[in-house]
Automatic annotation (TrEMBL), chain A:
Its cofactor is thiamine diphosphate. NCBIfam families: PDH_E1_alph_x (TIGR03181). This is Pyruvate dehydrogenase E1 component subunit alpha. The keyword Oxidoreductase applies. The keyword Amino-acid biosynthesis does not apply. Residues 48-319 form the Dehydrogenase E1 component domain. Gene3D superfamilies: 3.40.50.970. GO terms for biological process: branched-chain amino acid catabolic process. The lineage of its organism: Bacteria, Bacillati, Actinomycetota, Actinomycetes, Streptosporangiales. SUPFAM superfamilies: Thiamin diphosphate-binding fold (THDP-binding). Coiled coil: none annotated.
Automatic annotation (TrEMBL), chain B:
The keyword RNA-binding does not apply. SMART domains: Transket_pyr. The keyword Lipoprotein does not apply. Its cofactor is thiamine diphosphate. Keywords: Oxidoreductase, Thiamine pyrophosphate. Signal peptide: none annotated. GO terms for molecular function: magnesium ion binding; oxidoreductase activity. InterPro entries: THDP-binding, Transketo_C/PFOR_II, Transketolase-like_Pyr-bd, Transketolase_C. This is 2-oxoisovalerate dehydrogenase subunit beta. CDD domains: TPP_PYR_E1-PDHc-beta_like. Residues 4-179 form the Transketolase-like pyrimidine-binding domain.
Length: 372, 326
């Protein structure tokens, strides 16, 4: 059974685009952006760097150094564009794939790798970067972002110089109850939150039509706030649309849903095999819309960067890759007693008793070693 | 000293916590104008405003999920889940996020969230309004689980739970909401720490271990047994995670017999953990195996049957008889 597409039919979806896949700058009536050549070169550098981190992480997983990696390949523009729209006061709530946003927030990439290597569940300080820990259960963080935004309201931090939260999630997550509840809460409390959905077309093996009969951005209207679809492979458009949404949220106009229309060019994670459920043709078509190539074309076309610049960025990326690899391999394994740490803030009798018992058990082996 | 019902004692405790700390919020379904379906939050929104006493949409996962976000921003939310059987839509946020996020952050994030849940049966309610889901939460590392049995403890414990930097699931025995007792509202000097059990009636022959609604039942059992010349000690556990094991062990080693009483089903119930711990710690002191009295392994029955389902004076006395028969 397939849905009758004529039921509830609407106008075809609109897409905000400021830079075509060929690198041509185009106008949009509602969104514009004025970037200096230096800022554009900065965005290009960001895109290249995060792709390089991602490539290194995939390689590390293939070599057995990471248990898993969730690649952002193809989603760099959505993440860098939105990530660079944030101010220091804004708070970001990621899924487990927002390595590009983490980069924008100044999180050391090695900390991301630590999670996938299994040395901890999240090794950075969310308050230091205003970048929350990765959330692995799909959609749960949308409610955290809305609650955080309600806290911003209660702090009186809405208005001029206000703050907002932004929450990342994927197309699959839009089916979760928590995401729908978060839309309701944000709406009725007019919370300063931006919902940033990266529609990468695939929820592991399930295509978008298993999640929705309508374009995802149109879901927002049913909840009573604006939704907009942006070309998720266009870093200019992602930056412009997110800036506007955040400004609206910070100034007290309430939530916005952004659907960044993009494509997961790699596997869902390193454990996945996309050849079982999608055609290579599809990937080839999306490669023509690559988020990095179009910025490069724009820079070249407008003589805003020369070969030395591109070579320099590539060299810097290679250094970054090597550095990330070196420091990943140096991450110390946690000691066995560390699992008892941080479970509770205040003393907890059961944890204390089990910690002492386990320490005594381990000490028994040490004695054996001495005697034997 | 003032005479308060347990519901009013909880209300006064939350009011005091809100006066003491402007970061304390109350949130849940119908907690504002209505004052909660049991009136436990009565008058709080009138006095503290809608920003601090929040009537939420009817979505339990949303209540806990947004409370987590508020806690991340520095607030101390006190969430009301309207009834025990309604907590399960929030179970994912409680178990997967609230309990685990502090350790996930290596201690950098703390979530001082209280989840208040009216629990237990005995009020003639329809399905899903009489359950005892405590072990789902005591089994979840990262949560503290406590329950009050009387107005004085209710007043103190709710304030201690709100001050605690860990998430606390706070069970309130709904059929005891209207029990009255003297409550000292003058200060915290005499409060027992939140994680300690209390001997509510000393005795020599059998230890009755209970919590929440069954403490009162066990006190009635002890009074009845006294007439038969049996001296029963009643221990109110108060904190289920962590368990005050030293208090339990001290009592059972003295009496040599132990009966655990709770409303929840016996199988895999909290009594199973108690029986195992007591066997490990008191093996040579026991005159009889640890016996358990609780609900059968059925869903909570229609209310016309609940008097048969719930442990009562006769069923507990019967278990005491069996403990003596060994």
């Amino acid at each position: 059974m397939t849905a009758d597409a004529s039921r509830g039919a609407q106008a075809p979806p609109e897409l905000v685009q400021l830079l075509t896949p060929e690198g041509e700058r185009v106008e949009h009536p509602d969104y514009d952006i004025d970037l200096t050549p230096e800022e554009i070169r900065g965005l290009y550098r960001d895109l290249v760097m995060v792709r390089r981190i991602d490539l290194e992480a995939v390689a590390l997983q293939r070599q057995g150094e990471l248990g898993l990696w969730a690649s952002l390949l193809g989603q760099e523009a959505a993440q860098i564009g939105s990530g660079r729209a944030l101010t220091d006061a804004d708070m970001a709530f990621p899924t487990y794939r927002e390595h590009g946003v983490a980069w924008c927030r100044g999180v050391d990439p090695v900390n991301l790798l630590g999670l996938f290597r299994g040395v901890n569940h999240g090794g950075w300080d969310p308050a230091e970067h205003n970048f929350h820990l990765y959330t692995i259960v799909i959609g749960s963080q949308t409610l955290h972002a809305v609650g955080y935004a309600m806290g911003i309201q209660r702090d009186g931090a809405v208005g001029e110089d206000g703050a907002a939260s932004i929450v990342y999630f994927g197309d699959g997550a839009t089916s979760q109850g928590d995401v729908n509840e978060s839309f309701i809460w944000a709406s009725v409390f007019n919370a300063p939150v931006v919902f940033f959905c990266q529609n990468n077309q695939w929820a592991i093996s399930e295509p978008l039509e298993k999640q929705s009969r309508i374009p995802l951005y149109r879901r927002a209207s049913g909840f009573g706030f604006p939704g907009v679809r942006v070309d998720g492979n266009d870093v200019f458009a992602c930056l412009a649309v997110t800036r506007k949404a955040l400004a609206d949220a910070r100034s007290g106009q309430g939530p916005v849903l952004i659907e960044a229309y993009t494509y997961r060019m790699g596997a869902h994670t390193t454990s996945d095999d996309p050849t079982r459920y999608r055609l290579a043709d599809e990937l080839e078509a999306w490669k023509l819309k690559d988020p990095i190539e179009r910025v490069k074309a724009y820079l070249v076309r407008n003589r805003l960067a020369d070969q030395a610049f591109f070579d320099g960025v590539d060299a810097e990326a290679d250094e970054l890759g090597k550095d990330v690899r070196r420091r990943c391999l140096q991450l110390p394994d946690p000691g066995p007693m560390e699992m008892f740490e941080h479970v509770y803030a205040e003393p907890h009798r059961l944890i204390e008793a089990e910690r002492a018992e386990f320490a005594a058990y381990l000490a028994g082996f040490e004695n054996e070693g001495v005697e034997g | 000293m003032t005479t308060l019902t347990m519901a009013k004692a909880l209300n006064e405790g939350m009011r005091k916590a809100m006066e003491d700390d402007p970061k304390v919020l109350v949130m849940g379904e119908d907690v504002g104008k209505l004052g909660g379906v049991f009136r436990v939050t009565d008058g709080l929104q009138k006095d503290f405003g809608e920003q601090r006493v929040i009537d939420t949409p009817l979505a339990e996962s949303g209540i806990i999920g947004t409370a987590i976000g508020l806690a991340l921003r520095g607030y101390r939310p006190v969430c009301e889940i309207q009834f025990d059987g309604f907590v399960f839509p929030a179970a994912d946020q409680i178990i997967t996020q609230l309990a685990k996020m502090p350790m996930r952050s290596l201690g950098k994030l703390r979530l001082p969230v209280v989840v208040r849940i009216p629990c237990g049966g005995g009020i003639g309610a329809v399905e899903h309004h009489s359950e005892s889901p405590e072990t789902y939460f005591t089994h979840t590392a990262g949560l503290r689980v406590v329950t009050c049995s009387n107005p004085a403890d209710a007043y103190a414990m709710i304030q201690q739970a709100i001050r605690c930097d860990d998430p606390v699931v706070f069970f309130e025995p709904k059929r005891r909401y209207w029990d009255k007792a003297e409550v000292d509202t003058s200060g915290a000097a005499d409060w027992l720490p939140l994680d300690r059990a209390r001997v509510v009636r000393p005795g020599a022959d059998v230890t009755l271990l209970a919590y929440g609604p069954m403490v009162k039942t066990c006190l009635e059992v002890a009074a009845a047994a006294q007439e038969d010349g049996r001296s029963l000690e009643v221990v109110d556990l108060r904190s289920l995670n962590p368990l005050d094991l030293p208090a339990v062990v001290e009592s059972v080693r003295r009496t040599g017999r132990c009966v655990v009483v709770h409303e929840a089903p016996v199988f895999n119930g909290y009594g199973a953990e108690l029986a195992a711990r007591i066997t490990e710690e008191c093996f040579y002191h026991l005159e009889a195996p640890v016996l358990r009295v609780g609900g059968p392994s059925t869903p909570y029955p229609p209310s016309r049957l609940e008097d048969h389902y719930l442990p009562d004076l006769d069923r507990v006395l019967d278990a005491v008889d069996r403990a003596f028969a060994f």
